Structure formats: structure tokens, C-alpha cells
Amino acid sequence: MTTRTVDTTQELAAFLRTRRERLDPHDFGLPSRRQARRTPGLRREEVAELAGVSIDYVVRLEQGRGLRPSANVVEALSRALRLTPDERAYLFNLARQRPRNADKPATAPAPPLARLVADLSPLPAMLMNHRYDILAWNGEMARLLLDFDTLPPQQRNAMWLCLMRPEMREFYVDRERVVQEGIAHLRAAWAAHPDDQALTDLIAECAVRDKEFARLWAERDIKVNGRGRKAMRHPDVGVIAVHFEVLTPLQDPDQQLVIYRAVDDESQSALDRLRTR
To answer: What is the DSSP letter of 103?
Structure first.
């Protein structure tokens, strides 16, 4: 069997046709006079009206005549065809456009992920969203960093804590690198979520209140940091070096699972002493 590479123009045309034909006109409240149909689904003119584009444009797309719809048109077609999130992402990929995040940023952990964070003990683990809000954590992470339960929800943000909490200013051995990489990740999230006012407010507050943040933000470094190493000065057990891994769940892509593992035996011993406290 020979597998060909994807002809995105023809696949886009076929995908739009099949999605249109599977729709039930009754779900759209169409007048009864329109419901004696020789073909299944909605008509092209109905999809065009729902998406706010011309009938000729829909016809040319479905005929695979080389059009490359804009991101706005792809979004309008996704709504008109009532695509699922996975289908919407597929349509954007076929059109070679980058979708904006249509969902609101996560402000609470998905319950299965919160359980996973707890189940990862004795490894320190926590769940964050794209703006570094800490949504869930296990006891090991709280003993290592901070007792998040004692903080008001608006302060449970990894960047805010690193910059604003006095006890965190000397916590990281290589503080400037940690802050620099965090800001580079935050800038990438800012570009991907331009309508997230809470993220914009966080950046503005940090830039006003912390000169180091303002200086590094102005450098416009971009880096999505999925794994690496950190060394921390814990007030009770001394220096702990960890490898960290950041995982993004397929079902909840705005939530990021962060897991720490000790770099060496000395750090593991320190984590063990923390766990038994």
C-alpha cells in the first residue's frame, strides 16, 4: 500500500463537504419549505449565510479551487458547521492558519488532573495554566516551595510569587536565569492569548513593581521551557537540585503538569526529609 502526502486543498474541500452534509437542518430552525431536500445536510447557501461569506466562496472551497481562507473565515466556518474543538483544529491546520485559543483560560483544575497531581506523590507536582496560575499541587510541592493553601487565590501565581514574596527572592540559586526563562515563556503565552486580560494585568503589575522583570521583558526573549534543571535553597533542608518536566494534557491543553525529580542522592535525601516533616 502506498501512502501519499496530504493534498491540503482537496482534503479541505472534502472535509467541508462532509461536515456540511452531516448537519441536520432541523437543528438550525430552518423554514419547513426548505426541508424537502435531495441531498443530506445543509445547502451551501445556508452555510455561506451562517458563516457570513459568499455562496461562490463556499462553492470554490468545496471544489478545491486553490483558495486559502483566512483565520477569520476558518473560525466563521467552524462556528457555522458546529465543529468540535478537534475538528476546528484540523480545519485550521488544513488552511495553514493558526487558531486562537477559543476557550477561556483555565482557572480551576480539571478533576482527573487534580487527582493525578495527588497520585504522583512522592514526586513534587503541580498544575498550572499558561499564565503560571497554580491550580493544584500535592503536599510535596507545597513543602518544597510554599504552603499554597495559606495564600489568597490571586497570589497563587508562580511568577508573581517569585518576584513579590520576600522569602522567594533568594530561593533559587540561579535566580536570574529562572526569572529570564519564566519571562520568555510568559511572553510566548501572551502572544498566544492576546485577549487574556488577567495575563495582561499580571505583566503590567510585574513590570511596574519589579525593575528586573521590566528589563528582561523589554529584551523580548521567547522560549517555551518544557524541561530543565533548577537548584533551590530550602530554609530547612538546604540546597535541592531538581529536574523538571512540563507536560500538556491533550484534553486540557491550557493546563500544564509540572513534575520535579531529584538530580542526585543528596537532593533526594533532602526531599525525603521534607516529606517526613
So the answer is: S
Domains present along the chain, CATH in parentheses:
8-94 (1.10.260.40), 111-275 (3.30.450.180)
Q: What is the pTM of this model?
A: 0.77
Q: Which residue in 265, 243, 247 sits closest to 123, CA to CA?
A: 243
Rounded distance between C-alpha atoms, residue 160 and residue 201, angstroms: 11
Which among 32, 29, 27, 62 is positioned nearest to 44, based on CA atoms? 62
Which CA distances in Å does 274 have to 115, 117, 128, 268, 277? 22, 18, 23, 10, 5
In 3D, which of 177, 178, 181, 162 has the Cα closest to residue 222?
A: 181
| Residue 54 CB coordination number (10 Å) | 12
The predicted-structure confidence for 119-176, as pLDDT tens digits, reads as follows 999 999 999 999 999 999 999 999 999 999 999 999 999 999 999 999 999 999 999 9
